[in-house]
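With this grant's support, we have settled on a layout for protein records. An illustrative entry appears below exactly as we store it:
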Amino acid sequence: MNEQQNSPTGRSSAVTVIGLGPMGQAMTRALLAAGHPVTVWNRTPARADGVVSDGAILASTPGEAVEASDLVILSLTDYRAMYDILDGATASLAGRTLVNLSSDTPDRTREAATWAAGHGAAFLTGGVMVPAPMVGTEAAYVYYSGRDQVMERHRAVLAPLGTPKYLGDDPGLDQLMYQAQLTVFLTTLSALMHATAMLGTAGLKASEALPELLLTADSIGDMLRAGEETPGAALDAGEHPGTLSTVTMMGGTSDHIVETSASLGLDLALPRAVQAHYRHAVDNGHGSDHWTRIVDSIRGAR
């Protein structure tokens, strides 16, 4: 290695970013702002123009991009794209670390870790839990899983992307957490659109409805953390004390939502899915339990 490669600001802190969608571009800029030399590659080279203007170096091939750094971050559509891009560069992977921040299933991330190890590379899987404009801000955080030694080796370099939250050795655990978080996110978005459509039938514009609906969305966390409504410990203990919001009460509300939505001519997929959880709990004799009892049907309990 040359002198620069041995220096703290040379190869040891150099980073490669492969995939320059909005998230990849945001991560590149965050790393550049933190003083790291960044090499980039993208299937459409023109997407690199902005970050190259900011100081990144554009590699001409995936192999060249991999060889530029010991730490290679992937920001792609899915894990299949990683194989498509790196299959021709596997000879360059030995001794490097791949950090795949793409979205996919836990099983595919475990398969990817095995694939990387087969080519002599260390592997971390990760999930960025903020949109691209928030990458690098104090609000940003990123889940990681994989070998703890690998995480600790690269924690400082990865920190500019967002606060690292390490989950453990299982390379699939990060994606499980990521998909769980997106379950909450996407379901909430669908609920907001359903509620907006409901109010729209009465002539309320979305610009009028959404500020009111977001008050509820914003308050859900506070509601669940408040006193007896905190469900985590009781769920862990398998307890569902019906002291406040019971299955019967919440289920009755879900019935009303289905009836109202039907009368308005709206799609019933979302409200009926919610209704089914409560009906299952009632049918199994748990109407007087806390609403958290619906976890049984979600887990597949019969």
In short: The mean pLDDT is 92. The first helix runs from residue 3 to 6.
